[in-house]
DNA sequence: GCCTAACCGAGACGGTACGTCGGGTCTTGGG
DNA sequence: CCCAAGACCCGACGTACCGTCTCGGTTAGGC
């Protein structure tokens, strides 16, 4: 590895403590006040930094929030091989629901998805750094199933991905925001069951043939 | 119902021309500049009205836009009985895609969905006046299928609705915004085909049993 | 007077109370903190107005201060005819010194003259609305003396004006700022005496001839 | 005097090239952009130095400018004995006008005088290092005249000094800034003639008595 | 045929946050 | 110990919109 990506620039180094203080402040303010209450001035004030330090490193406050999400909730969702497409799907959906239905995480994700619609610049960033990665994770499952031979014939992983993420996001975006405490957790898991059932059972006709 | 809903108030009547000018201006500004470029002052200026006239009749600019959507695109999607769940689904999905992939309509819908995430007040309004109506329309199809007896056994209309709307919205929200001209129209229809196939074919095993 | 200078514009009228509150606040802040401590934000905060209201009516904070000077100290200095150039000069100088050596007024005048050097835009305004008016006042005295016949032969009112205002301003600008209490008041009046003596006595050689 | 004034401090010596680069940059920026365009960051950038190097050696940018004035224009004005108060005055005024009406020098002097009003710290410095020196130079002339016996009886050198410097500074500060090219040079010299005439002729009545 | 209530346009108002600029300090690596 | 570079905290800038509040003027019932 002879290549040095950072050619030893002169001058003071970026402050890691400021970085994490900013991300934490952004996360907290979003959870407490929602996106309209998230202001660059507020982040700077709570983080004890100058506004310029925020503008120097992030193009918009939505980008701050995206970094904060990566810092806060480790979005990586395990991809262990459970031996079957159904079992892999189950784990993927369960963990996604657990993560996405956490009120704080959910609020931030709703906010990010909303902002991605409104700000094209950030939209591209969000799609690349979040949505695409999640989709890539799903593709690991699907291609594993294809190799294993238990991916339903006559269907494409592309559709399955869209159905899975569509269900997840629609649940997040179309449902009323959780009032305060953890509301019904049963329903989403029933949905996951039904979806898995649909996506895996539908291969039977082919097998019968 | 002899009672008059509007108790014949005295004074000048609401100006219909101002109302439509405001809705048109809001629509155009959103399409041209996106939501950040949609300001109450801008709407008033383009519509040639005072700001107060907007604040008098709508609680927020997102509500203006929601009214504008109702004015502009007739969102009603036909629900003719085509004799089978598959055919009904086909028409529903086709018309939804045609409507939702129109760049102007799509931009406004993305904006409204985004705003619904950010502003809880408007979120409730959007869910009631838009999402719930679309879901009700789908339920007509589903219950028709149930009565007709060709709704797949072992599944619930609730899941189907979520899969249908999840797919539609995910396509709208997760895709990059259309650059300018009408981009690929083929893909969405292939998706619709595959979804219909999945939702209708999966009943066969049951029938076989 | 058929001409109407203000053609009855529509919309809300300018608030007189905001105007005076702004001018008062600007005056006080300058006296208390000096020009570097005079900020538009500070004026707005103390006056209880929005910043925009200041920017709407004045091009810079120096212009606010110039208006405040006109409001606060009535800069008009009496020009009664005292029968001779010497007596008129005496009153003019006395009143000018009394006004200009008032610590508050002096601080503001130093500030305005300084700002006029730094900001060409305001410099033009200050010269027209302040310096030129003071010079015009002096010219009334001088031309009265010329008509009366007791203006010293062989000299021009232009030089006298420059000497008078030069002395006044040099005293204000070159002297250290008054620390706190009223410092020596005797010296300036002695200067005035000597200047009057010089400007009026110098006509004697001519008279002798 | 074996003692070394600078106690041979250890470490790297002050860079003379940085010093002159900073002074030159400050002068140029003031002439080009005026005082508002003179920033420490700008000086450092043009001089190719760090900001810290400026803060290390000068308390404010006005002090930099004062040093730059000393470097640039040799402000010393000759004090040769011309045999009479009138002739000495003439040379003093002529050279002062020549220097002060040079557009670049004038702009810097206006700026320094302005800054001296606004910043008390620098004001003290400017009065000591600039105004007081000029006044001392004038006093050499005056005391020479007193010794020689041709200083006008019944007047004080203090008044003459104030009139001379008052006229000079008022001309600089109250006149509109020169647009670009050298404007009327005749008028100031006529003023100088008239002032000399006034200050020297006025002694005749006394002599007659 | 006036009243009078509600509408309308215009636009000034008190605010909040924006994104930028510059000040003055601190940190890094090199001379 | 000096120096260039540059990140840091901070405060003010001037702008953009917000949502509210007068203004004068317009439109209709209802007396």
What does this structure look like?
Four copies of one chain form a homotetramer. With 209 residues, chain A is mainly alpha-helical. Chain A has two domains: 16-72, Arc Repressor Mutant, subunit A; 85-203, Tetracycline Repressor, domain 2 (Orthogonal Bundle), CATH 1.10.357.10. Helix content of chain A is 69%, strand content 0%. The first copy, chain A, is built from ten helices and no strands. Chain A has helices at residues 16-33, 40-47, 51-57, 61-72, 85-100, 103-118, 120-148, 157-174, 186-201, 204-208. The longest helix of chain A is centred in the middle third of the chain and has 29 residues, at 120-148. The N and C termini of chain A lie far apart (55 Å). Chains in contact: A-B, C-D. Chain C binds chain D through residues 34-36, 110-111, 113-120, 123-124, 127, 131, 154-156, 159, 162-163, 165-171, 173-174, 176-177, 191, 194-195, 197-198, 201-202, 204-205, 208, and chain D through 34-36, 110-111, 113-120, 123-124, 127, 131, 154-156, 159, 162-163, 165-171, 173-174, 176-177, 191, 194-195, 197-198, 201-202, 204-205, 208. The first copy, chain A, binds a DNA duplex (31 and 31 nucleotides) through helix 2 and helix 3.
Quick synopsis:
The structure is a homotetramer of 209-residue chains. By secondary structure, chain A is mostly helical.
Largest interface (CB within 8 Å) is between: A-B, 44 and 44 residues
Shape call of chain A: elongated
Radius of gyration of chain A: 20 Å
For the residues shown, what is the average pLDDT of chain A?
Answer: 87
Quaternary state of the chains: homotetramer
Low-confidence stretches of chain A: 205-209
